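Office hours follow-up: a student asked to see two folded examples consecutively, so here they are.
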Amino acid sequence: MSALAVFAQTCPQRMSAEEVGRNIGSALHAGLAITQGDVSQADIQRERLKLGAQAIMQAWRDLDVLEIREETEVLTRLQNVERTISARKRPALA
């Protein structure tokens, strides 16, 4: 199962951009605390890491959607240019 499919199953609600940033920051702090040996709040640290991972997956998916939209827009523009060029090349009917 792809990471995006797992994300869709585990995080059905979208986060706001503010929540994404906050959760990623919180996950970074949790990861730093864990690497420094602070496991006094391990359950909270794990939850923060989980939310951070979900935020990253949402951002990844959103970027993928934007990339697809941009590609579609570029292809549409190219097709319009091709149609315009073809129309100009056709001889006028008398």
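And the second, which I mentioned at the end of office hours:
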Amino acid sequence: MTKNPFYNALFAIAYIVVLVTGIFLSTNFHGFPQESFIYPMVMLSLLVLSVALMAYLFFYQPILMLLDGYREKAVKLFLQTIGIFAIGIVLLLLCALVISR
């Protein structure tokens, strides 16, 4: 998406947080049907949307850079984005552990 790996990883983490929060809050609505054939379709659609969005966030700029002949920069951007994303996930897990105590 951008050539800044921090933004790419931050957008990915923000998307995951918003999506999980929405799913968590939607199950608490009164009158919301608990069992429906629509749930598997919605979850599969969300999976496809999430995979497409994550592919865009993680791969779009590195592939463009690779096609332009900047192989080293493309690999560096991709690995930095993955690394920052991993650090963000670890920080979220640590926050969850601290909050749950």
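Two things to take away from it. The chain has a mean pLDDT of 88. The two ends are 37 Å apart (CA to CA).
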